[in-house]
Design brief:
Blueprint: H1 5-15, H2 35-39, H3 67-70, E1 78-81, H4 87-98, H5 105-115, H6 119-122, E2 128-131, H7 136-142, H8 146-158, E3 166-168, H9 180-187, E4 191-193, E5 203-211, H10 215-226, E6 231-239
Parallel strand pairs: 1-6, 2-5, 5-6
Antiparallel strand pairs: 3-4
Bound molecules: zinc ion (ZN) (2 copies).
Length: 240
Amino acid sequence: MFAAPEFIHGLASLIYPPTCTICSASVGSREYLCADCETKLSRIVAPFCAKCSEPFDGAITTTFCCANCAHRKLYFDAAVSAYRSRGIARHVILNFKYGRQIHLRHLVGRWLIAALDDSRLRERRFDAIVPVPLHPARQRQRGFNQAALLAERIASRLGMPVRPMLQRVRFTTTQTAFDRSERIQNLRHAFRLRGNADVRGLEVLLIDDVLTTGSTLSECARVLKENGACSVYAATAARA
Ligand SMILES: [Zn+2]
Ligand SMILES: [Zn+2]
């Protein structure tokens, strides 16, 4: 017997009433956070850096670039996030990524979709949605690529397919222990275009879960642009 996914979902929520993934308060069907936890998310609001979305306190009304972006070459046109990767958001993303809680892709995917409302992305038409790839060994270990799962959420929202045009060819050690220049060095030649991918003339939307320093997104954007992509914008569910 075949049952529609909605039916199964409905049945499951009768047996296991949906609860907040953080505090276990009961929530509505297809909700993952209660209203209280939802208000604790740190939403990024203007003013923020036009290039990397780093927010600033204060009243800056003109378009500006932060000192971090001004002092280095970043190959993406802009990287957009709607939320900060702190507190609840950080906790949810870590559970999604390392805790095998794959269902959290729906919640994390919503934060990513919120980034599409930003004026830097809203009016653009993209030709390709490209997830930041994991090294195959890492993907086997984790069982999935979180960026690819999130790219699928965006793709179904925009009604276009995910195009995994990049591959990770170097198994890099974890970036967390490195400072910025070490991160960039560690990522050199980590990515390349997949064998038959053709990005010439394409406007690319690059997808990852979190922006930390921007080095990974920049390195992916460099490879895409060197192979002829005419623009590379990035969206992440959250940023450091
Ligand atoms: Zn809650
Ligand atoms: Zn910046």
